[in-house]
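User: My instructor asked us to take a sequence, write out its structure as tokens, and then describe one feature of it. I'm not sure where to start. Here is the sequence I was given:
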Amino acid sequence: MKNVKHLLYFVLVATTFAFTADTKKFKLDNSLLWKIEGKGIQTSYLFGTIHLMPEDQFVFHEKTKTAMETCDALMLELDITAPNMQVEMMKYAMLPDGKKLSDYLSTADYATLDSALLATSGMGLQALNTFKPFVIESFFMQNMIGNKTASYEIVLADIAKETENPILSLETMEEQMTMFDEVSIDEQLVDLMNYARGDEDLKKLFDELVTLYLAEDLNQLDQYMAGYFPDEKWLEYLLYRRNSAWIPKIKAETAKQSIFIAVGAGHLGGEKGVINLLRKEGLKVTAVK
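Assistant: Let's start with the prediction itself. The structure tokens for your sequence are:
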């Protein structure tokens, strides 16, 4: 289970969970919904999501809907309603320099991946041979979760549409997609082949994460994931740098209007999490029970 870096972070597929070495110092109340108040900003809310989960486990509390309806705008990691989203994603989904996955795979691994893709998506590797490995992981992730899935981002975007509130984004598609370029293709392929081989530990891990998420226990999530990121550089790439970049954007937007901010739950906790970073800016961030 050392190679789970990508299992825990997918662009619009699965959430990530951070950790801190000092869990007592940054212990948080059990909640996914947090109220943001302070001088120079409009009262806003921060909500931790899991981007895709089984429909029969999806829970959307009334307090979350009520909080969102009091805000003037919705802010997501990406505006999933943008009409050019798929086109933009494709710009960064392909391997560089005309490379193909078959250039990196042994004959045996190619056959294993090809067979697994046919079984899960109906498409063989030939049709997907030019995609980066982390993109192909989404096919297996969808299959692992099941056919009936739900997304907090989609629900929130639908509410924003009903209330005619604008949807803002913390990042561009380029920023989200190119952060994976920090990870070598060979390392991405290790994760992809784990999926292709049907590693039961991956399914177990995801199920346990969903359980902890539904318990709204950010502290347990922090502790649970610590063992799966032995090298902090992955946290730096996928979480910490992004969290820091989001703070000035959140402050700028909340200075103008009340914002409902929804990001992957793993961005909330820990010393370098969004909650603590906002507090360091002098803002009051409290759990909504």
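For the description part of your assignment, you could build on this observation: The longest helix spans residues 232-254. Try explaining in your own words what that tells you about the chain.
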